[in-house]
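Bench notes, afternoon.
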Amino acid sequence: MNEKENKNKMPPFNMNWIYGIIVLVLIYLFFVGTGDSSSKKITYTDFENYVRSGYAQNIVAAKDDGVATMYVKPEYVNKVFPSGVNQIGGSPSITVEYASNDKLMQLVDEARANHKFTGKLSFERRNDFLSSVLWNFLPLLVIVLIWIFIMRRMSGGGAAGGSVFNVGKSKARLIEKGEGTRVTFKDVAGQAGAKMEVAEIVEFLKNPKKFTDLGGKIPKGALLVGPPGTGKTLLAKAVAGEANVPFFSLSGSDFVEMFVGVGASRVRDLYRQAKEKAPCIIFIDEIDAVGRARGKNPAMGGNDERENTLNQLLTEMDGFGTNSGVIILAATNRVDILDKALLRAGRFDRQINVDLPDLNERKAVFKVHLRPVKTDDTVDIDLLARQTPGFSGADIANVCNEAALIAARHGKKAVGKEDFLSAVDRIIGGLERQTKVMTVEEKQTIALHEAGHATISWFLRYANPLIKVTIVPRGRALGAAWYLPEERQITTKEQMLDEMCATLGGRAAEELFTGHISSGAMNDLERVTKQAYSMIAYMGMSDRLPNLCYYNNDEYNFTKPFSDKTAQVIDEEVRNMIAKQYARAKELLTEHKDGHAQLAHVLMEREVIFAEDVEKIFGKRPWTSRTEELLRMEDYQNKKPAEDDDPTDEEKKEPNGAEGAPQTAEPETEG
C-alpha cells in the first residue's frame, strides 16, 4: 500500500525537459562544435605576401560576408604558424577580409603568372552549422509545435490529462474523503421525495452487507431528472457528502472529442480509476450530451464518435465486467431524448424526479439562502414564498442575491421586505427603465390596456388573483399586470378559457376606448395563440376534433401527424375559440366601462396600483379562488391574538410581483 501511494505521489512526466535538452545541445554545437583551432585571422597585406610567396594551396572565398580562407601548403606551415602543425590541427588555414572579388582574382592571376599559385580559387557561401540546422529542421520543428499546441487545446490545455500523451485520459475531478466543502442533506432544502430515494444509495454505500445478505444487489445508477436550477447537482454532492466516499464529477461534454476513440478511452479510464477508489460515486452532469438516442442524427449517420462513446458507457455500466461498489449518478433535463438502452434496469435502475419546489419547499429554500444575508424584521419568508410560484432553487438564490445588491445600492445596513419585492420584479419583469420617454397618448393607451387586464381578471371566476398593475416600463415591456397563479396539477378547459379571456382584455380595451389597436398586445396574442393551438391539437378540447392528440415527441420527424384537411380544421377552431373569448372580453369591458375608466385614470396618476385599489372601485371580487382561500386559512391560523386587522387585506397592500402577465402559466404541450 505504501509503495502504491509513493508511486502515485511521483511527479508527472513533463515534455519541457526534452525541449530544454534539445536547445542546450544546439547551443553547444554552435559555440563549441563549429570552432576550428587550425585557423587564424590575418591582415590583407600579409595575405598578399603569402600568396605571392607561394604559400597558398587553395583559396575559398565567401560570397556573403567578404571573407576568404587560404589553406597553407604543408611545407610552409612553420613559416605561417610558428607554433607548429601539431598544435594547430591537420588542416592549417588563415582567414582574411578582402575588399572585392576583382582585387582577389587579380592577386591570384598575378601569382599564377609568376608560378607561385597552382591551386584552385572557389567562391562559396559560408557553411554556418547553426543556420544549416535551422534551415533544415525549423519547418519540421514548427509543424511539431503546432501539432502539440492543437492537441493540448483539444485535450484540455495544461490541466491533468491535458498533454498529447494523455488525450485519452479521463478529465473527471476527484474529490477524496474529507476534501473540499462537504455538502449534506441539510444543505438541500425541500425535495423530500428525492432525498428519500437518494438516501437509500447512501445506505448502500455505508452498509452494503445489510442488503447483500438478503440477496439484494446494489443499484448500478440513478438518474436525476428535472427542470434546470432545481438542485440536481447539489443533491448529487449531498449524496457523496453523506456517504463520505470518493466522488468523481464531470460533464457529459467531457467525453466528446473530434478524435476517433477518445471518448470511449476516457470512459474506460474513468471506470478504471473508480474501481481503484471503490466504493465511490461517479456523477455525470448533463448526460444528454453523450447519451442521446443512437441512430437519430441524420447529419452524422450512425457511426459517429458520440455513439461509440455511448456504447462504451453502456458496456461499462452493465457488461461482462463487474463494477462492484461503483454507483453512477447522472442529471439531465432532457430525459425524453436519452437512449432507451441507457434507461433500462441494470444501468440506471431508478429515475428520481427533482421537480420545481412547491410553497412549503420554497419556504425551506428561502431559509437556506437567507442564512448569509443580513435581513431586518420586515422580511416575511411566507410572503416571499407565496410570491414566487414556479421559481426554482436557482431562481430563489438569485432573488436573495439581487435583494442584497439592491439594499447595498441604496446604502442600507440590512435587507428589507421592499428590497426582496423589488428583486422579484427585477428578475421577472426586467430592469426598470426610468429614462424611457413616452408621450401622453402612449401612456394613456398603456394605462387603458393594463386596466383592461385587471378589470376582466377581477370578474372571471378562474382567472388568477390580481396582485398589482403597473405602467412603469421594465425590460421590453411597457406595462404589466402581476398575478398570483394557482399551483395546479391539472387545468380544466374553463380555467384555460378564463385565462385566455383575461389575456385578451388589453387588446379589447384598446379597441373599445381608443378606437384603434396597437402593437403593445403582441405578447398577449402570441400566448393566446399558442394556448389555443395546444388546447385543440394536443389536449382534445375542441368540438370538431374531440379527444384527439396530435402531439409527436419524435424530434427528427419532419412530417405533420395530421392531414392538410385536419390542419385547416385546427386553424378554424383556433380562430373561433380566440374570437369567442375576444367578444366575451369586450362584453365584460362594456358592462364595467365606468370602473375601467376610473381604474385607468388612477393608473395614469400613480403608475402602480394594487389589488386594494381595484377592490375600492369594483368592490370585493365575486369569485374567490382556491389560492385566496388557502391564504386566508393560513393567515388565520398564524394570526397572533394582538392583531385586529385582516391579514389578507394587508397582503393585498404589498407591492407583489410574483407573477406578471408574461409569466402566467401556459398549458404544457403534453397536457
